[in-house]
Amino acid sequence: MSTSRQQQTPQQSPAKLYQFKLVLLGESAVGKSSLVLRFVKDQFDDYRESTIGAAFLTQTVSLDDNATVKFEIWDTAGQERYKACQSLAPMYYRNANCAVVVYDITQASSLEKAKSWVKELQRQADPNIVIALAGNKNDLSARRVVTTEEAQAYANEAGLLFFETSAKTSHNVQELFYSIAKKMPLDMLANNRPRGTGPNARGIDLNRTPQQAGGCAC
C-alpha cells in the first residue's frame, strides 16, 4: 500500500522592518501638518492650527513582502523664528534620513523658502539624505502661481524627488511617501549601525535584537 506524502510549502520569512527619521520643512501655512495627517490618518482638517515647535508621528509603508519602512516623522513649525534659531532648527533635521520640503503652489515666496531649506539640508544634514520637494494645495490650481515646470526643473537641478500634492483631496500624498520609502538605501543597513552613530549611519533594522544593534536589552 502506497502512502502519499503531504507536500510542505516553505515558510515565508517575515518582512524586515526598517526605521528612518523623516522631517518636514517649509514655510508656515503651506500644509505640512495637513500632509502628515492625510498620510498617517487619512484625514483632513480645514481649520488645523499651526504647529508650535514640532509634532511627532509614525507611519509604515510596505514596499513588498520582504521589506517595510517605518517613518519617524517630525513635522516642524514653519515660522522664520524657528529657522533662525540655530539651537532649535537643526535639532529637528539632525540625523534625519529623509526630508519633505513643502511649498504652496499659490505662493511664489514659499518656493523660495523651500529652496533655502533644501540648501540648508544639503549643507548641514547627512550628505546622503533623501529629499523630496512637495508642491502642496494642488486642489487650488485656479490660483496657481508656481508652474509645475518651474518646480520640476528646480527639483531636477537639485537632485530632489518631486510631487505636486493636495492634502485636502489626498492627491499624490501616499505616492510621495511611498517614493521616499523606495528611495531609502535598505542595502546600506548591512553594517547594522543604529541611526546617528556615525556620519554614514542610515537607519535602524527593527528586526534585529538589541545585542545585534549594539544597544542594551532594556
UniProtKB/TrEMBL annotation:
Subcellular location: Cell membrane
GO biological process, one term: protein transport
Keywords of this entry: Cell membrane, GTP-binding, Lipoprotein, Membrane, Nucleotide-binding, Prenylation, Protein transport, Transport
Region named Disordered: 196-218
Broad class of the protein's primary localization: membrane
Top-rank taxon: Eukaryota
Cellular component terms per the entry's GO annotation: endosome; plasma membrane
Family annotation (Gene3D superfamilies): P-loop containing nucleotide triphosphate hydrolases
InterPro entries in the cross-refs: P-loop_NTPase, Small_GTP-bd, Small_GTPase
Pfam family, one: Ras
A molecular function GO annotation: GTP binding
Membrane topology term: Lipid-anchor
Official protein name in the record: GTP-binding protein of the rab/ypt
Organism: Actinomortierella ambigua
Origin organism lineage: Eukaryota, Fungi, Fungi incertae sedis, Mucoromycota, Mortierellomycotina
Gene: YPT52
